[in-house]
Every structure is written in structure tokens, then in C-alpha cells.
Design brief:
It contains three helices and five strands; from the N terminus they run ααβββββα. It is α+β, with helices and mostly antiparallel strands. The strands form two sheets. The chain has a three-stranded antiparallel sheet with strand order 1-2-5. Helix 1 crosses helix 2. The mean pLDDT is 93.
Amino acid sequence: MSNRTVTRADLSEAVYQKIGLSRTESAQLVEQVLQEIADCLEKGQNVKLSSFGSFLVREKGERIGRNPKTGVEVPIEPRRVMVFKPSNVMKARVNKALSKS
């Protein structure tokens, strides 16, 4: 299995190759889509992409953590975290690709 990371440039190139927009327009399109997703998540909205998955924003309350090096208890502030939950379709595709390897 490859450890290669797909970048924005890779996504832009794929749009350029498959859709036929110019490279500049492809890059702008990818940026706009990613910006829209980021804006929605920043507002606390969940983003669902059918047959792909959902980006969810979860609230985590304050809790007490422990510094593993010193053992000192430290309060961890409440925060929001983003979670990706793949759809069943995406899970099946990933597992099918794994079984082909």
C-alpha cells in the first residue's frame, strides 16, 4: 500500500485532467470547495458528502489530564474537535481495495 499523500495540487490536477477546466480554474475550484467546507465546520455545522462521508464537529467538555512525564494533573480546556466519519459506501470501497492488494 502506498504512503503517498494527496495534496491540493494533486486534486487540482485531477480536476484539470477529468473536467477540462484550465489549471488556474481547477485550482480555484478546489480552493473554493475546501474553503466552503472549512467555513461550515468553523460555524459548527456538520458537512455530509453523500457516498463519501461526514465531517462532524463535536464539543468536548473540560476534563483533568495528566502530564505523562511528570504525573502532574492539568486541566484540559473545553474545545471543539472535528471528526471524519466515512460512509458505508466509502468503507466498502476501501476494504475492497485492500482485498485486491
